[in-house]
Amino acid sequence: MKAYDGMYIGGAWRPAAGQDVIEVVNPADEQVIGTVPAGTAEDVDTAVRAARAALPDWAATPPAERAARLAALRDVLTARADEIAETVTAELGSPLKFSQAVHAAVPIAVAGSYAELAATYAFEEKTGNSVVHHEPIGVVAAITPWNYPLHQIVAKVAPALAAGCTIVVKPAEDTPLVARLFADAVHEAGLPAGVFNLVTGLGPVAGQALAEHPGVDLISFTGSTAVGRHIAAIAAGQVKKVALELGGKSANVILPTADLAKAVNVGVANVMSNSGQTCSAWTRMLVHRGQYDEAVELAATAAAKYGERIGPVVNAKQQARVRGYIAKGVAEGARLVAGGPEAPREKGYFVSPTVFADVTPDMTIAQEEIFGPVLSILKYEDEEDALRIANGTVYGLAGAVWAGDEAEAVAFARRMETGQVDINGGRFNPLAPFGGYKQSGVGRELGVHGLAEYLQTKSLQF
What we know:
GO terms for molecular function: aldehyde dehydrogenase (NAD+) activity. The chain has a seven-stranded mixed beta sheet with strand order 15-16-17-14-13-18-19, sandwiched between helices. It has a six-stranded mixed beta sheet with strand order 10-9-8-11-12-20, sandwiched between helices. It has 15 helices and 21 strands. The chain is an alpha/beta fold.
């Protein structure tokens, strides 16, 4: 176990204001692997003041130079990719191959995309007799989750820096070690002091202080819808901009013309990925009644292969929460065809890959975000019924549609109330906007739309 000291503020590691620490636990074996300081309101204030002091010079830095700094950061992250993957595996429990392919590789790609955007984005444009100027919104508070700990940091930091903003990051208390590694990478890449600052701590203390701080111009938060509402209320009191990426209960709609086996197998893999701890996971599989029994059998077979392949969930509280939802599904009449509420191992916060059949749209497991390796399979009568079920939750973050004809899938996807839809297994695109409808959030991340969240617009008339 290693005791990590200090907060990264103003370009250096500085002593924390308080003495309290947070223990970081490896969820695979329940062993404490390190401690980090539990930040206070004083630490947050120091970090915000550092970001505020660095803002004028960074905002005035030419976009080409900001792009060069981001490219340097991308290169440092690339050189440290193995260390990133190993760190995420230790504190999140993700299998190492997944950490390498996703937790390390995706943030590197996102950082690179913003290095390019910073150099090419039209920060000024002419319309009629006006010049429209896009300038940094100011100091950003970034509060990030534990499920994709580095990706969510980079998805906020990279566009903020590309825009000319300065930033204070409060990472999730379960996964702060990769955030510290990222701070070291920022330092090695030579970003000016105060442009990026890191305060570790608990949400109700450090996160609350950061959201409330009057020196913050924008709060970018990724996490639960309940906490998102709380942050939005804080921001409303100060008329402060928010970007919120919240919960999801995404539908995977398999139309009758689709390749059923492929759609089911990819759908199961999507839900089991990252131990089900993905806000955009397709946790509701919608299948036509004529193909339903076959789909259930395929899904049960596919899920059984993940028993030894997925990692644990992040902590004991999350394990109990997911197992509670599984028990609730059974109690409400859903039929277990794979997995169940019993812990599959004596040690570690593991949950069995679970598949439910005979799920109805009104069941708890079909309406609420579980955030674990749990798939619900629902039956629909026709396309309109499928659409009604797909749109029948308070969420609208992501989804998928499968059909033999791409045009058929696209036509259905256009009617889904959700921010992103994969067509016939479409690949992840770091340039495509990501964000939700309804209670899945406000604003967008990634690509040019993600950059725009961190910009203020000013028009000059001539």
